[in-house]
Amino acid sequence: MRTTSVAAALAVAAAGTAGATTWDFCCTALSFALSSSYHGPSSPEYGNLTTARWSTTSVMHPGCVLTPSTAREVSVAMSIIKTAGCQFSVKSGGHNANPGANSIEEGVSIDLQRLNSTQLAADRKSVSLGTGITWGNAYKAFESEGIAFPGGICEDVGVGGLAVGGGQSIFQASKGWVVDNIIRYEIVLANGKIATADEKKNPDLFKALKGGNTNFGIVTNVEIAAFDFGTMWGGEMILNLNGPESTHTAMVDNLTHAMVNFVENNNHDLDTGLQVITTNLRNGAQLVDLSLTNTANIGNPPAIKDFLSAPNKLIDTTRHTTLATMAHVASEAVPKGFRYITASLTIKNDYKTLREIWDMNDAVFQGLPVQGQVDWMVSLIPQPKVQKSHAAARGGNMLGLETADDEIVLWLLSRWNNPSLDDMVSDARQTFLDKANQIAKANGADSPFVYINYAGYNQNPLCGYGKENVDFLRQVANKYDPSGVFQKQMPGGFKIGNVQC
């Protein structure tokens, strides 16, 4: 029946769109085959669907939007898209600032928001999530059951994108990357086939999806290892760095030492989590935003005592709370509606390197021609070497971190409102990246790893996985998508076919 409906839709489109563009042909066929999930530019939902993005830099104007509610509808869509050869994009939560990452100009935008199912396994050891649900809603769905699982730190991040990019979570030390906790993927391949990928079925695809990004198909459902979980301790602590230079320098020195010590200790205290966000605001404020967690529900844990005792506290929201609430708090720090630009790099857990990058980062912000309209943040995220053991326990992933020692991921996150400042902020972002990499290399503290979900549009994170993994990803992409649909027709994401290392 599906083949007939696809053939009929294509026939109708061919008859009614002679001489039209490829995307117009696709949209016409999709409107016939999947009318209840189709939204053209004249539909009342079109506007909200196209602007529902975390960053306004990723808002585009597709020829049509499709909101499938089942994997079968995604299958029909892919059959039409592949046959017609039109360009398309896929959106889960839309929490990526890179233009074209989750939308497209004139082509077909596939919005997975209605793939929002949640199911707890009978043995309570795993949950199944539709990839259009956000992590905040996923956490809330199982809160009353006393169940949790590794997932996104921010509530409005979608399950789909994180599930193929790696996935940082507040369980990083105790459970590893989110992909290391995925038991099964349901995926729609380029030819429309609905496939399962796990350790027994399509194991090569299963491994490739764990960090391989948008190169193989559209993931529609994931099964993730779960565990009993009640409340936790956590919140934000904001420190003021404005003041005399000597006080500022002493605080940054102490915070840098505390960060390096924490990363090393995180191999032993697996329950305590931390992110340090250095912040230069458009109003002139210099702040440090500490995101603190303890998943064993221990208040003020000893592992973060040096942060807890830091002076100049402006805000302290730490308390006993829930996972869903912590995800909400994290999202409040990076609200929707701004123009964002991101970039990432990784350094070894080295005091000298981190301290020099901190000062350099402040100098880059101070050098902006227009400071009063830009907020400039760099998040420091611990990567204790213990997390490698979690990857090995489930067959490995694609991230290339098997031999990594203690490291720190840096996530540059800048926001502003005026599109006329885009080039200025983009240039400053590149300056930060170039100088940070130079500092790390000079100190022998550089790392090839670039976290793909934080990477900027012109970075090359797949190369950081290493030659063996890059070759493997190419082989898997060629096997499951021999026509190169996801390489040629879906511009969003980082493409293995374009990688030159």
UniProtKB/TrEMBL annotation:
SUPFAM superfamilies: FAD-binding/transporter-associated domain-like. Residues 1-19 form the signal peptide. It holds the Pfam family FAD_binding_4. Keywords: FAD, Flavoprotein, Oxidoreductase, Signal. The keyword Flavoprotein applies. It comes from the Eukaryota. GO terms for molecular function: FAD binding; oxidoreductase activity. Residues 58-229 form the FAD-binding PCMH-type domain. Belongs to the oxygen-dependent FAD-linked oxidoreductase family. This is FAD-binding PCMH-type domain-containing protein. It comes from [Torrubiella] hemipterigena.
